[in-house]
Design a protein that fits this description.
Largest sheet: 8 strands, mixed
Shape: globular
Order of helices and strands: HEEEEHEHHEHEEHEHHHEH
Distance between the termini: 72 Å
Strand content: 5-15%
CATH architecture of the largest domain: 3-Layer(aba) Sandwich
Number of helices: 10
Helix content: 40-55%
CATH class of the largest domain: Alpha Beta
């Protein structure tokens, strides 16, 4: 059984990792763990997670009442309590502000897609909750309700909530979320996102639920058609979604293909190449196909 002293050290360590990995900045975010006696150890309100020490930790009971510690518990403690009350298997929660993942919510791009096999295996999909004012009971209720079916979620414009049986598991889910967002963004920048075929996504998710587990409500669906995957993964076909960049003007300029003749001398080859390129440029200028 892990002691409170050991949990204090882990909370400090993972707070620092979140900051070092650019998953939160300044006074953003909050972390908590549920101790064996049911009490909850959490980060203090208004503390810098990159400079966190054990003095910045507060112990509360399961109802949120402070037991000991300096300052007050995080102002978003209601969100943590809602998750703990919903999931008896959850013993650690990390709320962070991963920048790329949050950008997806601001751009109205869903992360509830099946793109990377390892993510489907371990997380399934990542839902985005509608916008709600931070620190409110309304937001806490939405997070708690979503936690019944998901181990990782995004809140519109706000950040991520990742759950785990311990801090390492919650942190890994947070890293996986942001890594997925980064890869998806790169794919979009390169021209499009190719999703997994629905049957493959379903096979992977069922395998993941059986092998790694997940929210009890999700595990209960492992033998159902589609498992716990959302329609975004099951209603689509394998496709590549083109992404155009309106900042780049289109051009009809075609590149010439040059085939080398082995009997040409070096001087004649150089002259012919120069003439060919010059002719193409002159033609393009005449037709107005080069930028002004």
């Amino acid at each position: 059984m892990i002691s409170e002293l050991e949990m204090r050290k882990e909370l400090v360590a993972f707070s620092h990792r979140c900051y070092e990995r650019n998953l939160l900045v300044a006074m953003d975010g909050n972390l908590s763990v549920r101790l064996p006696d049911g009490n909850i150890l959490c980060t203090q309100a208004g503390c810098h997670k990159g400079m966190l020490t054990e003095e910045h930790l507060v112990l509360i009971d399961k109802n949120g009442k402070k037991i000991r510690g300096r300052g007050q518990p995080t102002s978003e403690m209601a969100m943590h309590l809602a998750c703990y009350n919903t999931r008896s298997d959850v013993h650690a929660i990390i709320h962070a502000h991963p920048p790329i993942s949050i950008s997806f919510t601001i751009a109205s791009v869903s992360m509830a897609q099946c793109i990377l096999p390892e993510v489907v295996l371990t997380l399934g999909s990542v839902p985005t909750l509608p916008y709600a004012t931070t620190g409110t009971d309304h937001l806490a209720e939405m997070v708690g309700e979503t936690a019944k079916n998901y181990d990782a979620m995004l809140m519109d414009r706000h950040g991520a909530v990742c759950l785990g049986s311990n801090l390492l598991e919650a942190f890994c889910r947070l890293e996986t979320m942001e890594h997925t967002a980064l890869i998806t963004k790169y794919a979009k920048d390169l021209g499009g996102v190719k999703t997994l075929p629905p049957d493959e996504a379903e096979k992977l998710r069922k395998m993941g639920l059986e092998r790694y587990g997940g929210p009890p409500a999700a595990v209960a669906k492992s033998n159902e058609p589609g498992a716990d995957l959302p329609h975004e993964c099951l209603d689509c076909s394998e496709s590549e979604v083109p992404v155009t960049n309106p900042a780049l003007p289109s051009s009809d300029l075609r590149m010439a293909r040059i085939v080398e003749n082995p009997f040409m001398s070096q001087n004649s080859k150089a002259k012919d190449l120069t003439d060919l390129v010059t002719d193409e440029v002159i033609k393009a200028l005449q037709e107005g196909r080069l930028g002004e």
